[in-house]
Automatic annotation (TrEMBL):
<feature type="compositionally biased region" description="Polar residues">
    <location>
        <begin position="318"/>
        <end position="327"/>
    </location>
</feature>
<feature type="region of interest" description="Disordered">
    <location>
        <begin position="307"/>
        <end position="327"/>
    </location>
</feature>
<feature type="transmembrane region" description="Helical">
    <location>
        <begin position="388"/>
        <end position="411"/>
    </location>
</feature>
<keyword id="KW-0472">Membrane</keyword>
<feature type="transmembrane region" description="Helical">
    <location>
        <begin position="277"/>
        <end position="299"/>
    </location>
</feature>
<feature type="transmembrane region" description="Helical">
    <location>
        <begin position="162"/>
        <end position="185"/>
    </location>
</feature>
<dbReference type="GO" id="GO:0022857">
    <property type="term" value="F:transmembrane transporter activity"/>
</dbReference>
<feature type="transmembrane region" description="Helical">
    <location>
        <begin position="356"/>
        <end position="382"/>
    </location>
</feature>
<feature type="region of interest" description="Disordered">
    <location>
        <begin position="441"/>
        <end position="466"/>
    </location>
</feature>
<feature type="compositionally biased region" description="Acidic residues">
    <location>
        <begin position="444"/>
        <end position="453"/>
    </location>
</feature>
<protein>
    <recommendedName>
        <fullName>MFS general substrate transporter</fullName>
    </recommendedName>
</protein>
<feature type="compositionally biased region" description="Basic and acidic residues">
    <location>
        <begin position="454"/>
        <end position="466"/>
    </location>
</feature>
<feature type="transmembrane region" description="Helical">
    <location>
        <begin position="206"/>
        <end position="226"/>
    </location>
</feature>
<keyword id="KW-0812">Transmembrane</keyword>
<dbReference type="InterPro" id="IPR036259">
    <property type="entry name" value="MFS_trans_sf"/>
</dbReference>
<feature type="region of interest" description="Disordered">
    <location>
        <begin position="1"/>
        <end position="23"/>
    </location>
</feature>
<feature type="transmembrane region" description="Helical">
    <location>
        <begin position="125"/>
        <end position="150"/>
    </location>
</feature>
């Protein structure tokens, strides 16, 4: 078997055909997809239900730790520390530590578990990643809180300093299990496995809706249940004070009694000496349900591996390896990130996927502007927390409506506007739909049985291009790349709409005009369609760009016995893993820059961070403007 010769122009796209091995067909029917979406919804509810409670608990734990080493200050000092910037700064430091460590370890987790999506299968990786929420929330559920929110330090089972170490340890373990990003990668891969080219963007949009459902309803449901069925920490802390936890208590030497103990200052107004852990119970309940759904209902969709080489081929490979040791290139050590290195095709670099990755990084950078908007509403526009919460609910709810109702209409419109390749111009909408429903980015070119061929010929007897299987095999890749062009157009429209929104918000920040800011958030909602469009385009482009990449030996020549590696390079799981690594890096670094810029300019020039966010979206729009899914446009 020799390395495949590359065809010219867009008449023969690079979507793997023939020698690449075969992949299993997508899981048929709507039920397997519904199971994945339900599992994603449960996971999203588990992730977002305790967000507000976790921040409040982290503040209480940090205060308890502070007072464990500064016991019983004066009431004036207590009130000053609790209400001024010192307490907030202490909490912010812990939030920064936990989030940064969690994000960096998530990068390592995706680098490790990303390739395992193909090696182990989707389901084992999903089960592992879903455990991250359990680990993160368990500490908040069972750990006691000491003074000033509860009993004195010597009356709790676990010292507050150790409590903070345990909380940080929970975030560390959660990051090693993939935290939020690894479940997202796995869910997207499962949906892509169950989607044809005709339904891929729609199905990924449904997946995004399940995520937004958790954002909208998770905190609301947790807050409602906390009011109706409060579970306070008194009983839990009492259990922790039992003898079973005695080994956790520090053994301090016995001190002589203090004749006149210092009076304990009163708690700050409105603060209870207990905490309601119902949100964490709700989160753990949803997480357990998600695990059960994943374990018993989610079917494995990992495509089958390419056929094993013959005995003669194995002997030839063994002989060649004994005489010429294989070189391990830098790209092969990068895991999913090797997709960012453009491959050489006919002596030229194919930059399409790398350029799309630049667009993704710029778009994700712009998406972090919501954090700055949340922070800025309190200072620039003087909104109270309830008003900020209402605004977030408005943005989340309106984005869900846009994804459900507006995006499908935009897809239909862009299908009419985006020009088709010449070979598809004469086909009817019904023929295009039939080809799209049978086409996937990774399995185009699979052999069809005689019955399918006969059915296809009977259905398309009036069209010369569709007379036999070879005609379909040539047209299906073109349909996939045309729909990829539709996705890129949809993403460009969405990024442009977001850019307009932040331009309006920048003006509103300069004028300190709240109604104008709310008008700008309307455009943020209308721009919510880029995520599923970018994910769908990512899968199609990666499969096409890397479908003909040959494994090189030490001399740099294609290995005759392993000519193609589309399963490892251009597969959906590898492509989505690379994008998730980009998202994690951006969401770790960019908020530090935007928040620092806000802190430095909020008094002198409040629009500065919003102008930066606008620039990120402008970069995304510009980079997308000249990006075509067809290889001939870039060579």
């Amino acid at each position: 078997m020799t390395s495949r010769q590359r065809p010219s122009a867009e008449e023969e796209p690079l979507l793997g055909q023939g020698e690449a091995g075969t992949l299993s067909p997508p899981t048929e029917g709507l039920w397997p997809l519904i199971v994945v979406l339900v599992t994603s919804a449960l996971w999203s509810l588990a992730d977002f239900a305790p967000k507000a409670a976790a921040i409040d608990a982290l503040r209480k734990f940090s205060c308890a730790e502070f007072y464990s080493v500064h016991p019983h200050p004066s009431p004036a000092d207590l009130q000053a520390w609790m209400t001024q910037s010192s307490g907030a700064a202490q909490t912010a430091r812990y939030v920064l530590i936990t989030d940064t460590m969690n994000s960096l370890l998530t990068l390592l987790a995706i680098l490790y578990f990303g390739p395992k999506l193909s090696k182990w299968g989707r389901k084992p990786v999903l089960l592992i990643s879903l455990c991250a929420i359990l680990v993160m929330q368990m500490g908040f559920l069972v750990l006691p809180i000491a003074y000033p929110y509860g009993p004195d330090v010597d009356q709790v089972g676990i010292h507050p300093v150790l409590t903070m170490y345990l909380i940080i340890g929970g975030y560390v373990i959660s990051g090693l299990l993939g935290a939020v990003m690894l479940p997202l990668v796995t869910f997207r891969t499962l949906v892509a496995d169950r989607s044809t080219a005709a339904k891929q963007t729609r199905n990924l949009t449904w997946l995004t809706l399940t995520y937004l459902g958790g954002v909208m309803f998770g905190p609301l449901l947790a807050g409602l249940l906390a009011e109706l069925f409060p579970i306070t920490s008194n009983g839990i802390d009492a259990a922790l004070e039992s003898e079973w936890w005695y080994w956790m208590k520090s053994e301090a030497p016995e001190q002589p009694p203090v004749p006149t103990p210092q009076p304990v200052p009163p708690l700050p107004p409105g603060r209870a000496d207990e905490r309601n852990v119902t949100p964490f119970v709700v989160s753990l309940s949803f997480a357990i349900l998600a695990l059960l759904f994943a374990a018993f209902f989610v079917a494995e969709s990992n495509p089958t591996q390419a056929s094993a080489p013959s005995e003669a081929e194995e002997q030839d490979v063994g002989a060649s390896q004994s005489t010429a040791p294989r070189r391990t290139s830098l790209a092969s050590k990068l895991g999913p990130l090797r997709l960012l290195v453009p491959p050489k095709v006919d002596g030229k670099r194919d930059w399409r996927y790398s350029r799309l990755a630049l667009v993704q990084s710029a778009g994700t950078s712009g998406g972090t502007g919501l954090t700055v908007l949340i922070v800025g509403t309190g200072h620039i526009w003087a909104w109270d927390p309830s008003s900020v919460g209402f605004m977030l609910s408005w943005i989340g709810g309106s984005r869900a409506v846009v994804l459900f109702a507006v995006v499908p209409l935009l897809v239909k419109l862009t299908e009419k506007i985006v020009p088709k390749p010449m070979q598809l111009v004469g086909l009817s909408d019904a023929e295009l739909e039939r080809l799209a429903k049978g086409a996937r980015a990774e399995d185009i070119g699979d052999a069809d049985d005689e019955e399918d061929v006969a059915d296809r010929r009977a259905a398309t007897s009036s069209t010369d291009r569709l007379e036999d299987r070879d005609s379909d095999a040539r047209l299906k890749p073109l349909v996939v790349l045309w729909r990829c062009a539709v996705d890129l157009s949809l993403a460009r429209i969405s990024f442009f709409t977001e850019m307009l929104g932040y331009m309006i918000i920048s003006t509103a920040a300069l004028l300190r005009n709240s109604p104008l800011m709310l008008f700008g958030t309307v455009f943020l909602s209308l721009g919510g369609g880029y995520a599923p469009a970018m994910q769908s385009a990512c899968i199609a482009l990666a499969s096409d760009v890397f479908s003909g990449v040959a494994v090189e030996d030490e001399a740099g020549a294609p290995n005759a016995h392993k000519p193609l590696v589309p399963k490892k390079l251009g597969s959906a799981d590898a492509a989505l893993s690379a994008f998730s690594i980009i998202d994690t890096l951006v969401q770790t670094c960019v908020p530090v820059a935007t928040t620092s810029l806000y802190a430095a300019t909020n008094e002198t020039f409040p629009p500065a961070p919003f102008i930066l966010i606008t620039a990120f979206y402008a970069i995304a729009v510009t980079a997308l403007s000249g990006l075509s899914p067809h290889r001939s446009h870039h060579h």
